[in-house]
């Protein structure tokens, strides 16, 4: 039977290859039709008619010499039918439609999508041939090949009915038809023109900046020259003074003019020194100045420190429906299920008016800050304000002799003066000799999730698991790839925005990852936060086999689920080892190209994101038992595509233990109650100064970024999950592996024992190694079956319990003992 199958060449071709061959053949037929129409000659048909069946065998005097059509007799015949009898040259649309059909078959696209364009093409063909026919009937100004007989005939009937009105009707119909086509292209054309326009604008802006920079440079050079000249003058004056002192010593008194002149010189020198030093500082403009133009410069007469106000332009919006378009083609590439990504229109649009910059507030804050610092004798040379969605960062450039730590020590004073809760001091701003003071805006801007998802940055990203948390103080979208983190630890007091944050993470992933590539394990001891995602269980959730509750809410189930995820991790390691690849991406690529055999247990591996909303509840009831699998997953799961997102509202050391912390380098802190809590999560203060409602700090080992978390509300989550849930999806949620039963020594019922059981037992005893992959290799069976046999060997007492990624111990030393076991079992 197997042999027969092998011999059958066509049945061995996979579906996709067959479609590709069919697609190419259809396109070839279209090409031939096109050639025959293109080389149509009205005289050919007369020749064809004069031929008889024996003509095709006449080689020297054959029809080939008399027929001008490139495709000979057949070409002449077909082109005569299409061009002369039917629709004239407009019938060229027919091979175009056939070629498109071939292309769709070749690419295995949905043929349904071709329906309307094909119908449109045929309609335009008939219409155009009728219009040509009408003019031919009236004026005979050109050959009838333009309209074909049927065009002339239909035009004649219409003219009989409507007279001159028929051509008006035909032209209007043609205009409307073309408008439908042009309308689409017009949009694109406008977009192209717009992008040219913005390119041109940014070039002009760059030139302007360059010009300003040169101007500044010249100014500085001039000032430096002035300083040098002054110094030379001062040197000369000093020499003169010394001479005078000498002469005073010698009893000659200094004149009053000399004394006045000397003190004037001293003043000038001091002024020049100050200017030079500030010029030095200017040479290192703050980050914001380098990147953005000041929106406004506020200069008060009574105050010589200028403040420049910057508002980041934010990331470029993605063009209309770009995300939907990309997602549509992504969904098509995965034929395992028919799936439609949620559209961008399910998300609430932000109101048009952006956050207004309150210059009065900025001026007032500047006045308070400078006033306070002045009282402590701290001189500030310049100040920039960068206005973010939630807070404004005041960047202060202190005079060179001011110690930065001194400013930090007045933090409390500043807080009191600005009466601002949430004032945070960054001293110094990393890599710069400036100090940052973040003061919350009196009116804050809500960052809608749509405004981060519908950006070019997010839409065009090639990250595997992209998460756009929200916006930074410079209004830029802050985006990470979860695969690179590779896990997230989130802490924040009640009401600080954690749950919204988790929804943001999930929403971003739902908008970018196909259900075949991503599964969530959701653990929600609070029982409400993640319940909405029950809707998407057949698409995106992974569960324990036999579980009827896709969202895990009780601690025992949570432990079992995490153990099962750990088992999945071990299985994945084995699969990667067998496939000789280092990470899940390469594994899936290899699997998708058909290099890995399903029979050996290979399968497409989706990313698994384990979301735990409220670690504290689990730690309180299960302690170490829950900590262990979490730590193990966090340590090892990186390469095989399992990522953890763990949140807690109690960032105390008995919840976020040293072991957990050590394995989660990427951490997010929302507002917490105390500095101690902030230290537990971030290893430094700062989170206690946040102002809630999604105001967060992100730390990934290095620096820290303050971000306003994007807001996604329950209605939006509901819309998205119902949209996904209403589609058919997979038959059931993704099944995590079954975990080992603790009870030992109960053999499986006899009729369940695998046919390979005895053989497998002998192999295991011979090699003294209880490993699934050994059985797979030796018995040429799949992973699941080998795993089941190992479980049975364990129940029969041949091998020891499961020990993670290392092989099980073998309890039986030789075949004699093994035979005894076989006897006991009756196999
Ligand atoms: N990014 C945000 N932008 C604007 N408002 C927000 C944002 N995040 C949260 N909020 C507001 O704060 C409220 C509380 O947020 P959320 O429920 O996420 O807090 P939480 O930390 O999960 O609290 P709990 O632990 O009690 O569930 C929300 O109802 C919303 O009004």
Automatic annotation (TrEMBL):
Compositionally biased residues, Basic and acidic residues: 213-251, 259-296
Keyword Amino-acid biosynthesis recorded: no
GO BP term, pick one: cell division
CC terms in the record's Gene Ontology section: plasma membrane
Transmembrane segments: 21-40, 86-106, 118-137, 157-181
Localization (cell): Cell membrane
Xref: PANTHER family: DNA TRANSLOCASE FTSK, SPORULATION PROTEIN RELATED
Name of this protein: DNA translocase FtsK
Organism: Rhodohalobacter barkolensis
């Amino acid at each position: 039977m197997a042999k027969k199958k092998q011999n059958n060449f066509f049945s061995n071709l996979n579906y996709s290859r067959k479609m590709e061959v069919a697609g190419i053949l259809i396109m070839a037929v279209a090409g031939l039709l096109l050639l025959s129409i293109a080389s149509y000659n009205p005289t050919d048909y007369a020749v064809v008619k004069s031929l008889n069946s024996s003509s095709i065998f006449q080689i020297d005097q054959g029809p080939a010499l008399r027929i001008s059509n490139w495709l000979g007799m057949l070409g002449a015949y077909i082109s005569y039918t299409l061009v002369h009898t039917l629709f004239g040259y407009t019938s060229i649309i027919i091979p175009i439609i056939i070629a498109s059909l071939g292309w769709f078959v070749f690419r295995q696209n949905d043929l349904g999508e071709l329906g309307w364009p094909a119908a449109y093409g045929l309609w335009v063909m008939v219409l155009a041939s009728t219009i040509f026919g009408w003019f031919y009937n009236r004026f005979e100004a050109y050959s009838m090949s333009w309209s074909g007989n049927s065009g002339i005939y239909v035009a004649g009937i219409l003219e009989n009915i409507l007279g001159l009105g028929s051509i008006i009707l035909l032209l209007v119909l043609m205009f409307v038809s073309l408008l439908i086509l042009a309308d689409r292209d017009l949009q694109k054309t406008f977009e192209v023109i717009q992008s040219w326009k913005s390119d041109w604008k940014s070039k002009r802006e760059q030139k302007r900046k360059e010009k300003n920079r040169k101007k500044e440079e010249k100014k500085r050079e001039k000032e430096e020259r002035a300083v040098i000249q002054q110094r030379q003058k001062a040197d000369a004056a000093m020499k003169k003074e010394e001479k005078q002192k000498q002469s005073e010593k010698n009893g000659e008194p200094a004149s009053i003019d000399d004394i006045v002149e000397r003190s004037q010189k001293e003043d000038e020198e001091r002024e020049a020194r100050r200017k030079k030093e500030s010029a030095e500082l200017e040479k290192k403009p703050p980050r914001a100045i380098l990147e953005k133009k000041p929106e406004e410069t506020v200069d008060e007469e009574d105050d010589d420190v200028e403040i420049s106000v910057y508002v980041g332009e934010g990331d470029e919006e993605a063009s209309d429906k770009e995300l939907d378009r990309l997602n549509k083609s992504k969904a098509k590439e995965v034929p395992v299920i028919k799936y439609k990504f949620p559209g961008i229109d399910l998300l609430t649009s932000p109101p048009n008016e952006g956050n207004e910059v309150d210059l009065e507030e900025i001026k007032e804050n500047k006045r308070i800050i400078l006033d306070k610092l002045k009282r402590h004798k701290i001189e500030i040379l310049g100040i920039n304000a960068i206005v973010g969605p939630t807070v404004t960062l005041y960047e202060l450039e202190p005079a060179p002799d001011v110690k930065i730590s001194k400013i930090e020590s007045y933090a409390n004073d500043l807080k009191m003066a600005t009466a601002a809760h949430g004032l945070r001091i960054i001293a110094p701003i990393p890599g710069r000799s400036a100090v940052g003071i973040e003061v919350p805006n009196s009116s804050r801007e809500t960052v809608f999730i749509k405004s981060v998802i519908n950006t070019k940055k997010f839409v065009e990203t090639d990250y595997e698991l992209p998460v756009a948390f929200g916006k930074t103080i410079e209004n830029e979208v802050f985006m990470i790839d979860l695969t690179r983190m590779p896990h997230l630890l989130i802490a924040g007091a009640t009401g600080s925005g954690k749950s919204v944050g988790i929804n943001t993470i999930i929403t971003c992933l739902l908008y970018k990852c196909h259900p075949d590539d991503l599964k969530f394990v959701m653990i929600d001891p609070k029982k409400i936060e993640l319940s909405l995602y029950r809707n998407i269980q057949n698409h995106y959730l992974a569960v324990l086999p036999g579980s009827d509750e896709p969202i895990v809410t009780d601690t025992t189930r949570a432990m079992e689920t995490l153990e099962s995820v750990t088992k999945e991790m071990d299985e994945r390691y084995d699969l990667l080892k067998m496939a000789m690849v280092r990470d899940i991406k390469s594994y899936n690529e290899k699997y998708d190209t058909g290099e890995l055999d399903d029979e050996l247990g290979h399968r497409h591996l989706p990313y698994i994101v384990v979301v735990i909303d409220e670690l504290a509840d689990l730690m309180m009831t299960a302690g170490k038992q829950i900590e262990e699998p979490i730590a193990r997953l966090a340590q090892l799961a990186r390469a095989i595509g399992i990522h953890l997102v763990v949140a807690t509202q109690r960032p105390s050391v008995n919840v976020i233990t040293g072991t957990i912390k050590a394995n989660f380098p990427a951490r997010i802190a929302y507002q917490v109650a105390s500095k101690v809590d902030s230290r537990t999560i971030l290893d430094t203060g700062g989170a206690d100064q946040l102002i809630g409602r999604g105001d967060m700090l992100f730390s990934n080992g290095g620096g820290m970024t303050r971000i306003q978390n994007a807001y996604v509300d329950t209605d939006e989550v509901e819309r998205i999950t119902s949209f996904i849930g209403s589609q058919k999806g997979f038959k059931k949620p993704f099944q995590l592996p079954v975990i080992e039963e603790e009870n030992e020594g109960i053999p499986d019922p006899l009729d369940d024992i695998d046919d390979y059981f005895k053989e497998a037992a002998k192999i295991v005893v011979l090699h003294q190694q209880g490993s699934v992959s050994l059985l797979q290799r030796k018995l040429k069976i799949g992973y699941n079956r080998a795993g089941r046999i190992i479980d049975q060997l364990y129940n029969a007492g041949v091998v020891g319990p499961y020990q993670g990624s290392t092989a099980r111990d073998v309890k039986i030393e030789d075949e004699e003992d093994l035979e005894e076991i076989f006897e006991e079992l009756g196999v």
